[in-house]
Amino acid sequence: MHCPVCGEPDSRVIDSRVADGGSGVRRRRECPKCLKRFTTYERLERKPLVIIKKDGRREIFDREKILNGMLKAVEKRPISVEVLESITSLIEKEIRDEGYEEVSSSRVGEKVMEKLKELDQVAYVRFASVYREFRDIDQFMEVLTSLKTGEKH
């Protein structure tokens, strides 16, 4: 594995752990040249999952998009990247377990909102406001009211 800092073509594995609920391996590595440490993940290669966008375009599922969206939603919240990685893996697993090779982006977005709602209500509202493209305060209030009363939204 090439070092992402100096480009050294070799690295030493310091620690390996099971990741993604057993379907992957997380490795901590150290570069022998610059001594920087970095993390790599090994995952089972699977048939590509295709996402159908709102405008009908199709693109390959990208777990980094889910992770980045959640990272924005949890900014300045006490939630670790490891927790978000785990949620991302769970969402991907749930989608794949449904057995479809193509899934709508709205289905993915709903799953993200479902997980964020369980994890952190502030992050849920942040994500929902972007995902659902809130246009006014009434839409915010509707979501906040549903959270307060425990309704499913």
From TrEMBL:
<keyword id="KW-0238">DNA-binding</keyword>
<keyword id="KW-0805">Transcription regulation</keyword>
<keyword id="KW-0678">Repressor</keyword>
<dbReference type="GO" id="GO:0045892">
    <property type="term" value="P:negative regulation of DNA-templated transcription"/>
</dbReference>
<keyword id="KW-0863">Zinc-finger</keyword>
<dbReference type="Pfam" id="PF03477">
    <property type="entry name" value="ATP-cone"/>
</dbReference>
<keyword id="KW-0479">Metal-binding</keyword>
<dbReference type="GO" id="GO:0008270">
    <property type="term" value="F:zinc ion binding"/>
</dbReference>
<keyword id="KW-0862">Zinc</keyword>
<feature type="zinc finger region">
    <location>
        <begin position="3"/>
        <end position="34"/>
    </location>
</feature>
<dbReference type="GO" id="GO:0003677">
    <property type="term" value="F:DNA binding"/>
</dbReference>
<protein>
    <recommendedName>
        <fullName>Transcriptional repressor NrdR</fullName>
    </recommendedName>
</protein>
<comment type="function">
    <text>Negatively regulates transcription of bacterial ribonucleotide reductase nrd genes and operons by binding to NrdR-boxes.</text>
</comment>
<dbReference type="InterPro" id="IPR005144">
    <property type="entry name" value="ATP-cone_dom"/>
</dbReference>
<keyword id="KW-0804">Transcription</keyword>
<dbReference type="GO" id="GO:0005524">
    <property type="term" value="F:ATP binding"/>
</dbReference>
<dbReference type="Pfam" id="PF22811">
    <property type="entry name" value="Zn_ribbon_NrdR"/>
</dbReference>
<dbReference type="InterPro" id="IPR055173">
    <property type="entry name" value="NrdR-like_N"/>
</dbReference>
<comment type="similarity">
    <text>Belongs to the NrdR family.</text>
</comment>
<feature type="domain" description="ATP-cone">
    <location>
        <begin position="49"/>
        <end position="139"/>
    </location>
</feature>
<keyword id="KW-0547">Nucleotide-binding</keyword>
<keyword id="KW-0067">ATP-binding</keyword>
<dbReference type="InterPro" id="IPR003796">
    <property type="entry name" value="RNR_NrdR-like"/>
</dbReference>
